[in-house]
Amino acid sequence: MNNVVLIGRLTRDPELRYIPNTGTPVANFTLAVDKQLSKEKKQEFESKGQPTADFINIVIWGRQAENCANYLSKGLLAAVQGRIQTRSYDAKDGTRRYVTEVVAERVEFLEWADDKDSNFEDTSTDFPDIDGFEPIDDDNIPF
């Protein structure tokens, strides 16, 4: 069984690119996931300059990759569900490099950027394409 669930903050904006010949979108970003440390241990780690979080490389493909690139940015909180993948490649200097990353199957946006910094428009009160649905006044709800 290979299943990973992480919650953390992006350390940088997602990097979106498209695979040549196929045009398949792929996005990469790093998630900072806090370690489970007591308050005292956390202070000790910080005083020694040791990290109090793990930095996990995330890869996501397809339409979700484009959504991540459009709506996630550095510092925002996100949840990632996927699988761990290991691979290796030969670097330009001839050395063998090994990579461990999470291939995301699902990403949940747990925070949104401020409206002024985002192209996201809240359309929760607009129902132009759904017949029979219209906004209601919350004051008329009996509970």
From TrEMBL:
PROSITE patterns: SSB. Pfam families: SSB. Residues 128-143 have a biased composition (Acidic residues). One of its GO terms (biological process) is DNA replication. It comes from the Bacteria. Keywords: DNA-binding. InterPro entries: NA-bd_OB-fold (IPR012340), Primosome_PriB/ssb (IPR000424), ssDNA-bd (IPR011344). Residues 121-143 are annotated as: Disordered. This is Single-stranded DNA-binding protein. It comes from Keratinibaculum paraultunense.
